[in-house]
């Protein structure tokens, strides 16, 4: 493989990894606080729709972004209500949210635009344009490093850079701030947080809101950064892959980056090389398609190290039986 | 003298659903004193203190701190009012360091670094002032319970608590550690701090408190000056009638060895070796009591013999070797071989709480052909037998169709006992037989155990209550750190000697016993910490 | 009144079903008549909708998608007075005399777009992006590749399928990535036959300033000046004509190919500048040759193989 | 004493939850400019007032009974099997293979063998997640989700490349031989002068589903295995104490669960389509979650909940048929039902408990 092809595959990797990364970090905040979330998919979908719809209506991608975040946060609040306030089953709440988003987006889109659950194509200021970083043109002549800078690092939409910046930011918030300390504590031992005089529900709602915010970014990136509009079910299972990446990353931000890049790379490779021919055997495209899922199972099986979730994860905090 | 009480509770009531945990409680605690609260399990002590600490909200009643009416809707308010609490079940974040646990909720600002730095200094000072040394950078999960308790106390002191509540602090400590704790409390009192100490051990109350309140069935029966009362009076106040804690028994007539254990070893999931070569023999017709501080391998010993966990070494039952791992080594196989097992924790092991009582009466024996008709279970017969057993063991209410969770602790224990004893086993393993059981039931259970012994059964008893060990055992073995430290006859030993053994100090280690205790405990901790890495 | 049953993709799939919808609307506008339609939600509803419409007296009952043929086979005999139309499906006319099967020669239409793509390509590399990997899509791809190679034997055709689950029809993100990958491999014309995923392909092509080819309906307007042409499959005509004939509909099997104008390529204001005179004459020549039988385009579904492309 | 009588928990809570979900659904229908009342009338007429409506309702019910039981077995062992969808897909593969390749003399034999095949294939698809959960503690929710995706890829490969008749457009198998066609309700109940269940897909598998409910009850509450599964589900530590092997129960329960999911394919594949199509499961695996929750994992409850969802599906189809309400409305209603009965049930339960407590104190 020559450098150019490699760069192109990596470039594609970055784009495919970005929504995964944002969703993965979203899940990380939620699950670190003890609220499991298999509703990432639904939140992303809701955000993708809301951002595209509002961007189409207002012509401003920024207002669209806000709407996308708003929609995902709304879904998060439903999840919070069910799993924090009413101590419901978090997994079931997540399943319900996925259904809800899948139905509501199309229903509303149809009602608003009459295009069968699609939003009108976004043009001009309605979408995030790729950003060319300074000196990208000038440096592209430099061997090896030039193309890497110009083709791989430069030329993505702003949300990609935001997503990557979120990794150190998340790490810093989790491990260097008071909020992070409490957040990690509440996912591990909510009664310790409670007796220390900090509200368990407050912290968890905080985490769930951050989760909504990041899912909002992820969905908006799909619909207004990568694409120019919303198409029904356009998240296409990315929320589940993000969840898998989260487990792979053992609920750590920097690992999450690598996990998402790995899954992005797998997808990029699968898209570019379908039906791989190895000697006499042909690996059918279906195998490449299912590879991320197969890999997740292998990881979960513990062949790549055991993943231990936050101790209080998935359990509602019940003081009085 | 009209000094305002540090704490005054007026008319506190609290119900958990249908359970009335506290009813109309009034109590006052004077500043600079140690106030004891005693009462049986389930009397409502923890609930009351949790209300004072803002963990639960009372249904009714008022709280006065230093004479001022104070609302304590949450723990933040309690901390602000200068109240600190060390819970019966520690509230620590296991994968945080000591330092992180101490600052949690009491950080100085939004950034961690400065808080951690300051806390390190304060902690050093506190540990010097109060003999509360603990490594600030160690993870909690690597600390012994004794040290975890120190962290809890440090947490309270770091928050500058003037009033310190300790809920059953000595349950997990060796006698020497308990002494050390009491010295610390003494020091705190000398500095003018107010301490509320919950326990159900009369000895401790008499030793350290200034005043004492007695709780029974959710109510406060009396508050008296310690100097003006006696253990007998307190016990009577606690239970509501005169107590006879003496078990009548004839000397044992041990027969042939029934259970022979040699070099039994077990390593838990975390890689900590919990049993480090235990050898014991139990004869027919005797009770072998295992004494020890909770967490020194007694639970694992029962579990290994009962088939709940894998082990290595050898166990001979009536001379025949039992498989210790792989097929045929589970609890069902042990039961079939004649080992009955009353587990330490009836609620998480011995019973399935949502199951009915009758379903529970065959739990573990459900594969017995007697429970079957064809491929199905013979529920009619099981129900009938359950009814009989419940009547014989005086389970109240004697309704087999009630779910196990709807029986009180003592009655739950009777259901377990009925199930295990009625099987007429050769060996009875019995852990904490009277934990959380009222005095009346205790008498009954003790009598049953002795009756079984006299019927020629081999009985292995584990209890953290030394009194119980003394009352029932024909021989006493002491466990420390997964090993048997020694065996004594109850007539020829006393609580002090056993206490030292429980701390890992053998008679040969002369000199300062406390120092020896510390040394051996540290050794144990280091071993466990290593296993975690 | 006539009735129309859309396939699971839904009424507004921007291609196949939407074309059917357009046809029905045209019918309504032209004749002033009305019609009933339904979007299916599950497999079992296929038969149900057929029966309910037949019982309610709708005639003819027009259906889209190959999956409707077997439900129609089991229903048709129960309603001998109702005419059923299966577009893309095949029902044996000797067994069910009240069914009209309308089939399209997608391979022929795709062949023409292949000719245009080969002519428009500067690099000699063109792309095809399918939705879910099913035979119908392979049929498109195969015809397209034949057209490309007949025009430029040295050309390279890169073909990709989006996936193997129904999600492949609605994953524009993957469509974009596939398009980018093909672009980086030198493709400068890309034919998307992928439902909602195609939206992403056309978008990526427009963003990268290369050409794309739409499918089923005329998609030239989606990115004016950037969509070379669209492979037309005149489902709209089929629907309109069937509806217009009403209860007197002639049944049997109807094969709509180039000759019948059932398939073709789109030429309108949006792409007029992209199709040069030479291109137009070349593609029209190819069309004539196919109609005349001088050139045969291999149909993938006839033997599950393709001479021009391997899957 | 419990806070609330058992009947209230079993009946009142789900009933009120359903009402809440219905209320919100009505608001959604209002919001898109339709009349909820008309919609409800239409649904009831289409689903319950005609025998063919019942034929569809019971067809869907059959699917949901199987997937509901599938989720319920796992629930009893405290596992959340979200993989019913994939297990049913693979179960369908088993049905297709035996129907296509074994020449059966009569449908009854075919049904017997196909049931076995469906159950075995579905169970095997649940085996790896079960084993990983039991032996390696891999969270079964995630592994079963992954196995849904993998099942889809497998099925696509098999249908497109192996089982599809040459030249066929559909990614589906050939139609099964006539000897494997199951009698439908129409075949069974219609008489020349009373054409009941005309064209409806409900077929003998409905009775199989009812039988499965009875068997489920027998196994769960009358056998040692059921006793052990329930005990393990309530307390793993207690199960260990009693000598119940967690590995065995986890694997056996998941095998049963997968087998039940697989048997759903009998209805869709052998009973309705009479061939295996790619999209035969249509999310029934997920609906099973709601059904099991609402039915409190008890066969009677599951039957009733499956009936409710069958009604929703059939009624929803009628809505789509006669109004312009988009089909996604039904997805939204499903979501609301799952949300209210599954995740927000405490919102109903907590106030109810308080009411009952007050009543008892008052009495
Ligand atoms: N969180 C809770 N929810 C419901 N019931 C509770 C809860 N906590 C305690 N109870 C019940 O309240 C009663 C009093 O319990 P509490 O823990 O206060 O007793 P205690 O005196 O501290 O007993 P122990 O000596 O065992 O610690 C018991 O019947 C108990 O079952
Ligand atoms: N979690 C619970 N759920 C329902 N009822 C409970 C619960 N805990 C306790 N109860 C009820 O409250 C009563 C008192 O329970 P508790 O365990 O406090 O009894 P107790 O006074 O400690 O008796 P014992 O000395 O026998 O343990 C029991 O009879 C039981 O019916
Ligand atoms: Mg207590
Ligand atoms: Mg009790």
TrEMBL record, chain A:
The keyword Transport applies. Coiled coil: none annotated. GO terms for molecular function: transmembrane transporter activity. The chain crosses the membrane at residues 46-79, 91-109, 153-174, 205-224, 256-274. It is found in: Cell membrane. This is Simple sugar transport system permease protein. The keyword Ligase does not apply. It is a multi-pass membrane protein. One of its GO terms (cellular component) is plasma membrane. Keywords: Cell membrane, Membrane, Sugar transport, Transmembrane, Transmembrane helix, Transport.
Automatic annotation (TrEMBL), chain B:
One of its GO terms (cellular component) is plasma membrane. SUPFAM superfamilies: P-loop containing nucleoside triphosphate hydrolases (SSF52540). This is Simple sugar transport system ATP-binding protein. Belongs to the ABC transporter superfamily. One of its GO terms (molecular function) is ATP hydrolysis activity. It is a peripheral membrane protein. Keywords: ATP-binding, Cell membrane, Membrane, Nucleotide-binding, Repeat, Sugar transport, Translocase, Transport. Its main location: membrane. Residues 7-242, 259-506 form the ABC transporter domain. It is found in: Cell membrane. It comes from the Bacteria.
UniProtKB/TrEMBL annotation, chain D:
Pfam families: BPD_transp_2. It comes from the Bacteria. InterPro entries: ABC_transp_permease. The chain crosses the membrane at residues 12-33, 53-75, 87-104, 110-128, 140-160, 200-220, 241-264, 276-295, 302-323, 329-348. Signal peptide: none annotated. Keywords: Cell membrane, Membrane, Sugar transport, Transmembrane, Transmembrane helix, Transport. It is found in: Cell membrane. One of its GO terms (molecular function) is transmembrane transporter activity. It is a multi-pass membrane protein. One of its GO terms (cellular component) is plasma membrane. This is Simple sugar transport system permease protein.
């Amino acid at each position: 493989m020559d450098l150019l092809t490699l760069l192109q595959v990596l470039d594609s990797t970055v784009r495919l990894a970005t929504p995964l990364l944002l969703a993965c970090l979203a899940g990380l905040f939620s699950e670190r606080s003890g609220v499991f979330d298999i509703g990432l998919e639904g939140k992303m979908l809701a955000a993708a729709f809301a951002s595209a719809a509002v961007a189409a209506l207002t012509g401003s991608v920024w207002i669209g972004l806000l709407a996308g975040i708003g929609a995902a946060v709304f879904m998060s609040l439903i999840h919070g209500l069910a799993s924090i306030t009413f101590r419901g089953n978090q997994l079931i709440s997540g399943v319900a949210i996925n259904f809800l988003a899948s139905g509501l987006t199309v229903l509303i889109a149809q009602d608003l635009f009459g295009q069968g659950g699609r939003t009108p194509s976004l043009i001009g200021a309605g979408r995030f344009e790729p950003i060319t970083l300074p000196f990208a043109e000038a440096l592209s002549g430099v061997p090896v490093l030039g193309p890497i800078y110009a083709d791989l690092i430069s030329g993505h939409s702003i949300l990609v850079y935001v997503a990557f910046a979120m990794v150190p930011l998340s790490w810093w918030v989790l491990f260097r701030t008071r909020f992070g300390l409490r957040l990690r504590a509440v996912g591990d031992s909510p009664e310790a947080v409670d007796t220390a005089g900090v509200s368990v529900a407050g912290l968890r709602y905080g985490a769930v809101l951050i989760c909504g915010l990041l899912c909002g970014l992820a969905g908006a990136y799909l619909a207004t950064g990568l694409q120019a509009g919303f198409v029904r079910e356009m998240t296409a299972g990315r929320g589940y892959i993000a969840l898998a990446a989260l487990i792979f990353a053992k609920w750590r931000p920097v690992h999450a980056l690598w996990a998402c890049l790995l899954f992005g790379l797998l997808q990029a490779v699968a898209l570019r090389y379908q039906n791989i021919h190895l000697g006499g055997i042909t690996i059918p495209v279906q195998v490449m398609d299912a590879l991320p899922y197969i890999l997740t199972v292998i990881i979960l099986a513990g062949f790549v190290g055991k993943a231990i979730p936050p101790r209080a994860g998935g359990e509602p905090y019940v003081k009085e039986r | 003298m009209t000094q305002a009480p540090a704490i005054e509770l007026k008319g506190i009531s609290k119900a958990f659903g249908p359970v009335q945990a506290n009813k109309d409680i009034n109590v006052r605690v004077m500043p600079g004193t140690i106030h004891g609260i005693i009462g049986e399990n389930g009397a409502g002590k923890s609930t009351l203190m949790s209300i004072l600490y803002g963990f639960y909200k009372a249904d009714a009643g008022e709280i006065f701190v230093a004479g001022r009416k104070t609302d304590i809707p949450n723990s933040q308010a309690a901390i602000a009012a200068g109240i600190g609490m060390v819970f019966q079940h520690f509230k620590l974040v296991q994968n945080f360091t000591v330092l992180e646990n101490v600052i949690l909720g009491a950080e100085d600002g939004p950034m961690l670094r400065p808080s951690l730095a300051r806390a390190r200094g304060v902690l050093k000072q506190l540990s010097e002032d109060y003999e509360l040394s603990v490594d600030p950078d160690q993870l909690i999960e690597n600390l012994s319970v004794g040290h975890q308790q120190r962290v809890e106390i440090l947490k309270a002191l770091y928050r500058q608590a003037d009033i310190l509540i300790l809920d059953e602090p000595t349950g997990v400590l060796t006698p020497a550690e308990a002494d050390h704790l009491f010295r610390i409390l003494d020091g705190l009192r000398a500095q003018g701090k107010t301490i509320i100490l919950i326990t159900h051990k009369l000895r401790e109350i008499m030793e350290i408190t200034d005043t004492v309140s007695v709780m029974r069935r959710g109510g406060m029966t009396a508050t008296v000056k310690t100097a003006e009362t006696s253990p007998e009076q307190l016990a009577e106040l606690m239970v509501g009638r005169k107590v006879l804690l003496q078990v009548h028994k004839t000397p044992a007539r041990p027969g042939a060895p029934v259970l022979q254990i040699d070099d039994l070893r077990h390593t838990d999931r975390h890689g900590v070796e919990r049993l480090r070569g235990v050898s014991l023999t139990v004869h027919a017709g005797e009770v072998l009591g295992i004494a020890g501080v909770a967490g020194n391998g007694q639970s694992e010993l029962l579990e290994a013999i009962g088939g709940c966990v894998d082990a290595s070494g050898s166990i001979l039952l009536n001379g025949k070797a039992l498989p210790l791992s792989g097929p045929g080594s589970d609890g069902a196989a042990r039961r079939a071989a004649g080992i009955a097992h009353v587990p330490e924790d009836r609620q998480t092991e011995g019973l399935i709480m949502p199951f009915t009582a009758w379903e529970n009466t065959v739990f573990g024996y459900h594969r017995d052909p007697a429970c079957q008709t064809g491929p199905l279970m013979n529920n009619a017969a099981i129900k009938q037998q359950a009814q009989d057993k419940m009547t014989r063991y005086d389970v109240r209410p004697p309704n087999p169709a009630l779910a196990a969770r709807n029986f009180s602790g003592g009655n739950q224990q009777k259901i377990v006992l009925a199930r295990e004893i009625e099987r007429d086993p050769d060996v009875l393993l019995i852990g904490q037989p009277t934990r959380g059981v009222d005095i009346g039931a205790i008498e009954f259970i003790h009598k049953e155990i002795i009756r079984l012994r006299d019927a020629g059964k081999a009985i292995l008893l584990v209890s953290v209550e030394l009194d119980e060990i003394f009352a029932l055992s024909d021989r006493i073995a002491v466990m420390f750190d997964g090993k048997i430290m020694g065996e004594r006859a109850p007539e020829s030993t006393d609580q002090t000697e056993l206490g030292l053994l429980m701390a890992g100090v053998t008679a040969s280690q002369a000199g300062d016993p406390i120092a020896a205790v510390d040394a051996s405990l540290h050794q144990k901790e280091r071993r466990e910490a290593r296993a975690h890495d | 009144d006539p009735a129309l049953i859309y396939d699971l993709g839904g009424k507004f799939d921007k291609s196949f079903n939407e074309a059917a919808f357009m046809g029905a609307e045209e019918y309504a506008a032209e004749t002033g008549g009305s019609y009933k339609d339904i979007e299916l939600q599950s497999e079992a509803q296929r038969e149900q909708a057929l029966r309910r419409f037949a019982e309610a007296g709708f005639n003819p009952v027009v259906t889209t998608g190959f999956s409707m043929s077997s439900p129609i086979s089991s229903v048709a005999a129960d309603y001998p007075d109702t005419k059923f139309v299966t577009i893309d499906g095949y029902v044996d006319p000797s067994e069910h005399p009240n069914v009209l099967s309308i089939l399209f020669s997608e391979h022929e239409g795709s062949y023409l777009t292949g000719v245009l793509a080969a002519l428009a390509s500067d690099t000699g590399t063109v792309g095809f992006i399918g939705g879910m990997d099913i035979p119908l899509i392979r049929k498109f791809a195969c015809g397209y590749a034949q057209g490309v190679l007949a025009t430029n034997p040295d050309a390279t055709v890169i073909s990709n399928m989006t996936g193997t689950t129904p999600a492949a029809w609605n994953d524009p993100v993957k469509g974009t990535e596939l398009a980018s990958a093909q672009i980086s491999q030198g493709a400068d014309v890309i034919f998307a036959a992928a439902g909602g995923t195609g939206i992403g392909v056309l978008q990526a092509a427009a963003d990268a300033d290369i050409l794309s080819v739409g499918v089923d309906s005329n998609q030239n307007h989606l990115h004016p000046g950037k969509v070379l042409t669209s492979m037309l499959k005149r489902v709209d005509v089929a629907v309109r004509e069937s509806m217009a004939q009403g209860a007197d509909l002639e049944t049997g099997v109807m094969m709509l190919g180039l000759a019948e104008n059932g398939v073709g390529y789109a030429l309108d204001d949006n792409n007029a500048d992209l199709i040069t005179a030479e291109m137009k004459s070349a593609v029209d020549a190819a069309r004539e040759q196919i109609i005349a039988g001088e050139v045969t385009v291999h149909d993938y579904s006839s033997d599950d193989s393709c001479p021009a492309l391997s899957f | 004493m419990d806070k609330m009588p058992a009947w209230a928990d079993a009946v009142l809570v789900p009933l009120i939850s359903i009402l809440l979900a219905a209320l919100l659904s009505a608001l959604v229908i209002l919001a898109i400019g339709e009349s909820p009342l008309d919609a409800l009338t239409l649904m009831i007429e289409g689903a319950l007032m005609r025998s063919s409506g019942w034929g569809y309702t019971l067809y869907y019910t059959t699917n949901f009974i199987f997937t509901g039981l599938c989720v319920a077995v796992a629930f009893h062992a405290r596992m959340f099997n979200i993989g019913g969808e994939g297990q049913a897909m693979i179960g369908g593969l088993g049905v297709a293979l035996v129907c296509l390749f074994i020449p059966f003399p009569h449908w009854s034999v075919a049904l017997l063998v196909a049931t076995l095949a469906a159950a075995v294939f579905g169970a095997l698809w649940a085996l790896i997640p079960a084993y990983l959960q039991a032996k390696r503690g891999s969270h079964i929710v995630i592994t079963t989700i992954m196995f849904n995706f993998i099942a889809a890829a497998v099925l696509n490969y098999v249908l497109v490349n192996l089982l599809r008749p040459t030249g066929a457009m559909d990614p589906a198998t050939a139609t099964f031989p006539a000897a494997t066609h199951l009698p439908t309700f129409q075949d069974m109940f219609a008489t020349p002068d009373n054409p009941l269940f005309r064209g409806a897909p409900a077929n003998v598998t409905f009775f199989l589903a009812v039988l499965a409910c009875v068997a489920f009850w027998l196994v769960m509450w009358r056998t040692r295995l059921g006793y052990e599964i329930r005990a393990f589900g309530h307390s793993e530590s207690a199960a260990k104490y009693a000598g119940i092997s967690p590995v065995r129960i986890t694997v056996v329960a998941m095998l049963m669960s997968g087998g039940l999911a697989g048997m759903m394919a009998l209805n869709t594949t052998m009973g309705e389509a009479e061939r295996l199509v790619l999209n035969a499961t249509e999310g029934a695996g997920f609906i099973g979650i709601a059904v099991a929750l609402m039915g409190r994992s008890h066969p009677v409850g599951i039957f009733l909940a499956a009936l409710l969802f069958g009604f929703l599906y059939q009624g929803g189809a009628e809505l789509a048929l006669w109004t312009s309400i988009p089909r996604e409305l039904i997805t939204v209603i499903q979501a609301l039902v799952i949300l209210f009965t599954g995740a927000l049930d405490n919102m109903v339960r907590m106030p109810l408990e308080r009411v009952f407590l007050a009543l008892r104190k008052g009495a």
